[in-house]
Design a protein that fits this description.
about 400 residues, alpha+beta, Jelly Rolls, 8-stranded antiparallel beta sheet, 6 helices, about 30% strand, elongated, binds 2-acetamido-2-deoxy-beta-D-glucopyranose
Amino acid sequence: MFHFCVVILLLYTARAEIFFEEVFNDDSWENNWVYSEHKGIEFGRFNLSHGEFWSDPESDKGIKTWQEARFYALSRKFKPFSNENKPFVLQFTVKHEQSIDCGGGYIKVFDCSLNQTDMHGDSPYLIMFGPDICGPGTKKVHVIINYKGKNHAIKKDIRCKDDIYTHLYTLIIRPDQTYEVLIDNEKVEYGQLEDDWDFLPPKKIKDPSKSKPEDWDDRPTISDPNDTKPENWDKPEHIPDPDASKPEDWEDEMDGEWEAPVIDNPEYKGVWKQKQIDNPNYKGPWEYPEIDNPEYMADPKLYAKEEICAVGFDLWQVKNGTIFDNILLTDDPEYAHENGHQIWKLRIEGEKKMKKEQDDLEKSKKETIANTDTEKVENDGDEEDDVQDNVLSDIEEHDEL
Ligand SMILES: *[C@@H]1O[C@H](CO)[C@@H](O)[C@H](O)[C@H]1NC(C)=O
Ligand SMILES: *[C@@H]1O[C@H](CO)[C@@H](O)[C@H](O)[C@H]1NC(C)=O
Ligand SMILES: *[C@@H]1O[C@H](CO)[C@@H](O)[C@H](O)[C@H]1NC(C)=O
Ligand SMILES: *[C@@H]1O[C@H](CO)[C@@H](O)[C@H](O)[C@H]1NC(C)=O
């Protein structure tokens, strides 16, 4: 099986051009990646780690955010390339093993103008892609693409994974101006670049030279002109109470002239209105004729980036512990698929197995303590068990696989 996979990979490699690949298996990354020293921010550090649970302790190593409540800004340059006339694939893995509450998990792609030591949130980028989580409200995959100097976010909502295991994120942009987003090698969104981002002005606009004709009747109903007010309709709304009578001890001189208190008139019928009938002249709502927008110009190179030169992580994280790994930039979606499958599938299975073992061990330790101690402590132990159970069910809930 192993051999078979390697052969397949080699076959793909023969066709695929790999522009950049980073697997973070040893300390050499420290020589190639550059931390930002942008003024005024003390950036967090990454550290090589396979995390708390893993499948293979060597190949599962990635760079892990190591400090709490920090901005991170780290990048690496490579030989520049253009994606003109070929597919572009951006792929990487993310593991939020800290049960992330608020923090970015995305990667940015830059051209060569990136000043790595000065990289910060406003450094211009070409593409920003990957998960972003903040509270229960924000759990999405960003796909932001810069077009002619302006960042455009995808108009579709793509939900990201929010569990504690490794996930594979893939963006494919093709020269036929289509795109795909995959999570764990499954297509979660796809379409036309032009449709799903506002890169270009709209194709059609309302004809500004046209306006609604004066005699265009767009009232669905009208008052019936033949409906006339009944003769005895008008009655006062209030009348003096006919049952009231002047009190015996009322003295006009002292109390003023007596007036009966006013009551609602039972014969009052309200304001008369003509009844509504269908308008015989109704023509329907006026619709502006649309014309081709003179500002619109199709761009067959919407997908193309002349110079792709660097990748970087520019993030904010509250709880540290996210592990990034397996960054791949290639022109071959099939190679990326196969490569991603081999990395990710085994890894998540191993992670889940080890995490379960760890949790089971933890649970049985707690049970042992609870069973051997005095009753008072036993109660405490049970409480802790409850907490542990909650944590477990929390994890299971988040586990969408
Ligand atoms: C990670 O960073 C911490 C603190 O900087 C350091 O003590 C530790 O040795 C590092 N671990 C690895 C694997 O580099
Ligand atoms: C980073 O996260 C780990 C848990 O993954 C935690 O033990 C550690 O204290 C954190 N480091 C800092 C500096 O907060
Ligand atoms: C990069 O930014 C740093 C810090 O602002 C600055 O000192 C340096 O001159 C910049 N380098 C280039 C090539 O612009
Ligand atoms: C009002 O009544 C006249 C005469 O009966 C009739 O010709 C006309 O169509 C009616 N108008 C409406 C709006 O129904």
